[in-house]
From TrEMBL:
<dbReference type="GO" id="GO:0071555">
    <property type="term" value="P:cell wall organization"/>
</dbReference>
<dbReference type="InterPro" id="IPR003770">
    <property type="entry name" value="MLTG-like"/>
</dbReference>
<keyword id="KW-1133">Transmembrane helix</keyword>
<dbReference type="GO" id="GO:0005886">
    <property type="term" value="C:plasma membrane"/>
</dbReference>
<keyword id="KW-0472">Membrane</keyword>
<keyword id="KW-0812">Transmembrane</keyword>
<keyword id="KW-1003">Cell membrane</keyword>
<dbReference type="Pfam" id="PF02618">
    <property type="entry name" value="YceG"/>
</dbReference>
<dbReference type="GO" id="GO:0008932">
    <property type="term" value="F:lytic endotransglycosylase activity"/>
</dbReference>
<comment type="similarity">
    <text>Belongs to the transglycosylase MltG family.</text>
</comment>
<keyword id="KW-0997">Cell inner membrane</keyword>
<comment type="function">
    <text>Functions as a peptidoglycan terminase that cleaves nascent peptidoglycan strands endolytically to terminate their elongation.</text>
</comment>
<keyword id="KW-0456">Lyase</keyword>
<protein>
    <recommendedName>
        <fullName>Endolytic murein transglycosylase</fullName>
        <ecNumber>4.2.2.29</ecNumber>
    </recommendedName>
</protein>
<feature type="site" description="Important for catalytic activity">
    <location>
        <position position="221"/>
    </location>
</feature>
<dbReference type="GO" id="GO:0009252">
    <property type="term" value="P:peptidoglycan biosynthetic process"/>
</dbReference>
<keyword id="KW-0961">Cell wall biogenesis/degradation</keyword>
Amino acid sequence: MLSRGLKWLAGGLALAAGVAALAGWLAWRDYQAFLSTPLRLPAEGRVLVVEPGMSGISMVTRLADMGVTRNGWTWRLLLRLEPAIIQAGEYRLETGMKPADLLGRLTRGDVIRYRFTIVEGWTVRQLLDALAADPVLGAGVPPDAATTVLPTLVDGHVNPEGWFLPETYSFVRGDSYRELLLRSHRDMRAALEQAWAARHEDHPVTSPYELLILASIIEKETAVEAERGDVSGVFVRRLRRGMRLQTDPTVIYGIGEAYDGDIRRRDLVTDTPYNTYTRHGLPPTPIALPGRASLMAAAQPRPGDALFFVADGAGGHTFSATLEEHEKAVKKLLERTP
């Protein structure tokens, strides 16, 4: 009887072991299928926001609420087998992404990065308007930022015009517009220092700030890369000779919001601090945000004898050494203008 009972017990244990092995194999098969199956994502993907301190289980719960995956034991096993410190942030989920891919992205902190471009020639007002319109950065920009925020970012300069370097800046959700502007200002200071160190020895400007002013005028006068040195050369030669710069962009800046797209004779004779037709020397502040090319052009004007330039009607300018040549170029432009 005992022998027969032992046989039954042994048989039962063998059966239980077999059932356990089968269950384990089936579970492992299900787990491998889970790992190899992409998340349920639409063609445009989804965005997952992970708050600071969120646990892996909480993250899976959020994914399940989004309909991206099922909240089951397979996720808990993955999180146990591959312990991870999930970093907070905003993550893009693309089609084809598998559970381990997502976990790796969250561990690396490979968050969504946005871009904001500061355009060469923008004024500070245009910069703030673009920031306010940005769907990620814009919520924190106050209407009076030009007078209340920007002066605190530019080392005490009362007028922040010109002090932000045009570049494309990368940022993540949660970064503030102030942080982006501080980066831009630091970049401008570095670029201006580089240009100032590279300036010609006999340059008439007497400070880096004057160089920034000159660069801003060059930026507004031409968008043609090859012309910047020539435009700079004209202005530098005029400064050396005590001639007025007579540049329309400074007049426009002085008109301000009243500018309607046309410069009239009364605008050229109405004196303002920015009217370089009525005043000698540089205006009191920059008139725009100059890029690196304009900064270097201001520091290293191209040699020559030109003292005048006018639009050529084809996107560039005609440069002249004498007033007579300049008047002929103006006449030619008027003949081409419909």
